[in-house]
Each structure stands twice: as structure tokens, then as C-alpha cells.
Amino acid sequence: MKLPVAVQLYSVRDEMEKDFFGTIKLMKEYGYDGVEFAGLFGKSPAEIKSFCDEIGIIPISAHVPYYDMLENPDKVLADYAEIGCKYAAVPYLTEECRPGTDGFAATIEGIKKIGAAAKKLGIQLLYHNHDFEFVKIDGEYALDILYSTVSEDLLKTEIDTCWVNVGGEDPAGYILKYSGRSPVVHLKDFVMKGKSKGKLYDLIGIDDEADDTQEEEDSFSFMPVGSGVQDMPAILDASLKAGSEWVIVEQDNPAKGETSLNSVKLSRDYLRSLGW
């Protein structure tokens, strides 16, 4: 058994900016079954849908900024419904609305509002975690509080396996924990030397005040799927057992000396070697 494999186009955002449609076509040539958007780069929903239909790649999902969806959910999500996206994900929370701040309660209510608007358009809202959701509030992870507070029909998971690992939990176990609620799983690999995360948080917009040394900068690196520390066979098996519909490759930044295009190609080649 296997699931269809998509790629989060944020992984190749440098190429998308230069050649939007050419890059999507290349993803199809690499063997990806679908794409997950991270911005439309000024292209209209109609032309994106037409192009995806033409080349035979599925526009399965999109990462859409939380505040954009909150401000005008009907308009913003209607664009992705027109493209044909089945899912839209809250991709990231800025500091003022994260767990551990006074704004987190309002964030939960905002996600309920967005989820309801998405449902009316035939889109399922997902939440894409980082590791800052693994802060505990009254002994419970904030990520679990989010999922227990917002009903499953309004919000499902898009578990990012890298950030679960960095947050101190087992990615495969976390996918299984949300069996039936994990339609989309992010496959992301990494290496980390020692216990220092170095400049890891700079990659997601947090000033972690790490020492600016070569050792610190090189302590963490995103890697193509299958070439880091993640137990990908276990993650893939958990995705199947959890009833997931898609797995999506994402690599936030290429490893040192690599390109974004070759990184996602290597990930697809690895998954193909496992029969996916």
C-alpha cells in the first residue's frame, strides 16, 4: 500500500518566483502526484486550475497566512476552492498569537471561524505545526489543546514530522495519536549535531540569540527525505495506519551546497525506492 505524494512548493519558492508554471511542471516530471501551494505569485486561480488539469497534477492543498484567512476567509479561501484545493492549512503563527501568549485563546477562536468558512466552500482546514506548539499549558501540549478545543469537522491535522521530532515527540507516534484526523502528513527530514539547535529558529522567524559561530550555524540542517535522522519507513507506515490521504514533501531550506530543485528530486527518488 502507498499514498500519493505531493510537494510543498515553499520548498522551491526561489524557482516558483522565476517560473511559476515551469516549476510546477518540473514537479510532475520528478514524479510528484500533487502540489501544495505557498502563495500564488500573482497568478489567477482559473489559470492555475487549467494548467494543473492540463499536465495532470493535483492541486491538493495550500498554506495560507493565518491573518489573511482571518481577515477575509470567504474571499481568500474561494480562490483556493476555485483552483480545486481540498485542503487549506494554517501554516505558521507569529509570536503574538502563539501558545504561551495572551493571544493564543483568540487564535483558537480565529481558527474556528476560518474552519467554518472553509467548510462552506468545501475545503477542510488543517493546522501545520512547528515545535513551539509543544509548550505545555497546565501539563498538556498546546497542540493537543488546539485539537481538543476546535472540533474535528472544523480542523484536522497536518503533522509536520520534523517539528514534532524537534519538539521532543516521536513523529510516527504522533500521527497515530490522531488517526482518522490526519489526512495530510508533512515528510521533512533533518540532521542536528549535539543538543544545540543553533540558528534553527532564525529559519522560522524567531531570534533565538544563539552564538553567531560556524559551529552553531551548522548544528541544524534540513535534508532531503531519507537522508537525515527521521525514521521515514515508520512515518510512512503510521500515515497508512492513521488513514492519511496524502504525504507531502517539504524542505524549508536546502542543505549547504545543495539546490532546492535537487533537494525535492532526491526526496521523491528516495520515496520511489521504497515503492511510493
Can you describe this structure?
- With 276 residues, the chain is α/β, with parallel strands linked by helices.
- It has a single domain (5-188, 223-273), classed as Divalent-metal-dependent TIM barrel enzymes (TIM Barrel), CATH 3.20.20.150.
- Helix content is 40%, strand content 17%.
- It has helices at 13-18, 20-30, 45-55, 66-71, 73-83, 104-120, 142-149, 161-166, 171-177, 214-217, 232-241, 260-273, and strands spanning 5-8, 34-37, 58-63, 87-90, 124-128, 136-137, 140-141, 156-160, 184-187, 189-192, 220-223, 246-249.
- An 8-stranded parallel barrel has the order 1-2-3-4-5-8-9-12, surrounded by 7 helices.
- Strand 2 (34-37), helix 3 (45-55) and strand 3 (58-63) form a beta-alpha-beta unit.
- Helix 5 (73-83) packs across helix 6 (104-120) and helix 9 runs parallel beside helix 11 (232-241).
- The longest helix has 17 residues, at 104-120.
For the record, the CATH architecture stands as: Alpha-Beta Barrel
Number of domains: 1
With helices defined by DSSP (H or I, 4 residues minimum), what is the helix count?
12
Strand order of the largest sheet: 1-2-3-4-5-8-9-12
Q: Outline the biggest β-sheet.
A: 8 strands, parallel, barrel
Q: What would you call the structural class?
A: alpha/beta
